[in-house]
Write a structure and sequence with these properties.
Blueprint (H helix, E strand, L loop, with lengths): L2 E7 L2 E6 L4 E4 L14 H23 L3 E13 L7 E13 L3 H15 L1 H6 L4 E10 L2
Parallel strand pairs: 5-6
Antiparallel strand pairs: 1-2, 2-3, 4-5
Organism: Methylocaldum marinum
Protein name: OsmC/Ohr family protein
């Protein structure tokens, strides 16, 4: 896996993944930025969310469960002093589907957290990561 990050101006950087996708990272005005993109640490948190969401949906679909939607809400706290690593991350899953049980969704979340999500497991070295979920039945 490769990536490239190029400084554009002030506090703005353009990141390009090895697969050719780009995203803009920028800082707030007080750091010289123009607030035109996500902060690097926000990007890291979003990446973790994407990683675990991918796992949970994949696990549910592989088990032939009727999952229709999955949304995550993430909240994180960072250390007060440098390096301002994440110290706490909470992930709330909202999973929509038909006939999904607590046991099935809970197991998918647990498998992602403990076995499959590389990003969560890596960030778990500095942060206490907690999870919860809700299931919304759809027709």
């Amino acid at each position: 896996m490769k990536a490239r990050v190029k400084w554009v101006e002030n506090a703005m950087f353009l990141a390009e993944s090895g697969s050719g996708h780009t995203l803009v990272m920028d800082g707030p005005p007080e750091s010289g930025g123009r607030n035109l993109g996500a902060r690097p640490m926000e990007t890291l948190l979003m990446g973790m969310g994407g990683c675990t969401a991918f796992d949970v949906v994949h696990i549910l679909r592989k088990g032939r469960h009727d999952v229709r939607d999955c949304e995550l809400q993430l909240e994180a706290e960072r250390a007060e002093s440098d390096p301002k690593v994440f110290t706490r991350i909470h992930v709330h899953f909202v999973v929509k589907g038909k006939g999904l049980s607590d046991a099935v969704v809970g197991r998918a979340v647990q498998l992602s957290a403990e076995k499959y999500c590389s990003a969560s497991i890596m960030l778990g070295k500095t942060a206490q990561i907690t999870h919860d979920y809700e299931i919304i039945e759809v027709e």
